[in-house]
Structure formats: structure tokens, C-alpha cells
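#data-curation
PF: Archiving a pair of folding outputs for the training set. Convention for this channel: one message per protein, sequence first, C-alpha cells after, nothing in between. First:
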Amino acid sequence: MKKFAVIIYPDFSLQEITCLTSVLSVWFGEKIDFIASENKKYKSEEGLFVLPAKTTAEAKITDYDCVIFPGTINPLPALFDEKLIDFIKNGADSEVVFAAISSAPLLLAKAGILKNKKFTAGFFMQMAEVFPFIEKENFIHKGIVCDGNIITGIGMFFREFAEEVLRRFGYNIGDNFMLDKPEDYSEEELAFYWSNEDYSEFLEELQSYQQGENADFS
């Protein structure tokens, strides 16, 4: 089992990473730690609140095989979060795979992780003029860019970003990852059945709920 973490901060984008995190957790049963600099609720850009499992003080970045950074429409709170940046810095010169999408490469750049690394990002190009830690000469205008242990992507290519990370760790995701079309499937293929074992487990769980319902109204 590999160890994965997702870093969250104000206005982080769930949409840009859930293709990746859902496949890791649902398809392959991987546990993912959600980490933030403080133990509080963080509101995603979609309006959902997420409570981190650990804080940066409780976690060690080098304990993870891969650390995932979602984009954010408002990168400044994270960019000026010293606890968060220090946490990321501790992964410099390690074998941790840093996977950052959209504006998140800004955080890697400030922490020195992108030094002498080719990368892409979805931030506005004026930011490269404002922040001296961005190495403009290493910015590549492509959807996905990999350089060593760094995987970066632009937000609109969230599927390709997920695919790159999953293939990096050797997961079998087939040749047509997330590109299936409804018209390519027959009626039989779209009828889903449990195995006998899973069906029995469902019936047992259903019975416990039904018994509880009867108890409430007795």
C-alpha cells in the first residue's frame, strides 16, 4: 500500500482532484490523509466544508509516497501560510512525488520544490512577474508536465493529471481511463449485479436498518 496525502487550504478545488482521489480510494482501496496547517473546517471553492485528518504539525511530509495539491481560486492565503510552506519545504530533496494542479505549483515554487524543475500551472502569468520564486524559464505551456518527482497540471486537464499520477505508481487503469462513452455499452453491460457474497452482506446490513426502524416505531 502506498501512502497518499492531500493538502487543503482555503478555497481549494475538489473538482480538480476527485477524479484522482476517488480512483485511489474506491478502485484501489488506498487511504488518503487530508492535511492542513490548522485543525479547522476548510471551505472548498465548491462550497463544501472539509475537516483535515491531520495538521502539518502532526504529519511528516516524507512519510508519504505522494502529496497532492489541489488548485485554488484564491492562492494567497495558502501562499502566505508559513506553517504550510515550511511543511512543504521539509520534502525538498526527498523521493516524495509532488502532484500539483492549477494554481498549486505556486506553493511548490515558494517552498523551493520547483527549483530547476520544468513545470506547468494554471495561474495567471502576471504572477510570474510578481513572485521572484517562480522560475519563468522553466515554465512549460503544456497541459501536464513531469520532471523527476514533480507532476504538474492545468486544471482543465484533471483527468490526464489523475492518469499521470496513477500510472506513476503502477495502478492498472486500462488504456482508456475515464474516456468511456455511453453509446459504447450494451444494455447487458449496463446492468450491474453484486456477487453472491456482496449481495448477502447487503441483505444483512439492510436487515439491521429495518430492525432499527421497527424499534423506533414500536
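PF: Second:
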Amino acid sequence: MIRKTGILGGTFDPIHNGHLALAEAAGKLYNLDEILLLPAAVPPHKKEVISSFSDRVAMIEIAVSNRTALTLSTLEHLLPTPSYTIDTLRYLLDHSGHLVEFFFITGADTFLDILSWKEYPELLRLIHFIVFSRKGCDNEKLYKLFEQLGYQQKKDAWYSRTSPKWIYCSSVTPPSVSSSEIRKRVAKGFSVDKHLPEGVCEYIQQHEIYSVR
């Protein structure tokens, strides 16, 4: 039986409830067997990462400790940097055999930048995408991009004659939470408890992450 595995990548600096809601919604909507949370070791599109890889991993471990469908993967820490999605996916495909089908989970705002991703045509050929609308996202712009990439719509999914993989669209909108906003609030001494999984806020406070020194 083919195992359906979702991938949610990102800096996770820090991981927050929006990330978890996105992952869990994808799992339920598309019947995924598991979801990998893949923190980037050196993200190519970020000018800076505030906290260390080990701190970001520790916060994810806390966040997924009571969520059996979510699994932390530190794979990108072992691969060459910067952490490109295509390189990570090729490694996963090479080491997973033919019994795993991968689904890349992302927000619409992130997918709109896909033309800047390394080897994006090959990425679209190798993996399904699950794209969630974001508050304020221009879906018409998103759909035009799908068409530009050679996809045609079939209900809430898009297919291409040149790729065996689909792009699935969901109108489920996860909580609007921003890691950068959380970092700013922590630096100013404001509460962020409602935006973070249980235990993550305590870790940030104990290790003085994001605090102004």
C-alpha cells in the first residue's frame, strides 16, 4: 500500500499554532498517513535566522510531543546548505522506495514565489502540492500562475499533461500567525501564549530566545 506523506517545511522560528493548523488540516483533508515537519538548516530565501537550528528543533519537538500524526525531521541539517526543497525531496525519494507518495504543504503566498525556487519544474514533476489560501490572498493571481505553469482546473485540484503530480487547493484558512510578529512581541515583552503550542512559550522564556539583550 502506498503511504501518503505530507511535508511542511520552513524556518519555524518559532513554530506556532498556524503551522500546526496547516499541517493537521492537510492531513485530514487529504488523508495523509503522516506529516514531516522539516526545519530548514540554512533557508535560501531568508536573510537571517534568529535562533539556532538546535533551538528551533527543540521547540518543534515540544510542539509535536502529543501529536502522533506529526513527525520532526532534521534531515536538512545533514544535507548541503543552503536548504533547497528539491535537494531534500530527491534525498527522500531516493531513501523511501516506491511505496511513499509525497505532498508538499504550503500557503498560497509562498506558492506564488515558486518561480524563484531552485529547479521548480522538476519539483512540480516529483511531488504533489497542497496549497492553502491565506487571508487576503489573491486567488485569481494564484490560478493564473497555475495556468502559466501549464495546469488545468478540475474542481478543487489542478493537473498538468506534463506532470503526474497534482496541485490541490483548499479554501480552509489556518490561523493568521506570523513568526516574525511573534519574535517582535517577545522582544517587547508582550504575551504570545495564545499563538504558540503548549510548552514552546516556556522554552523561549527559559532560553531567552528573541529577547533584547
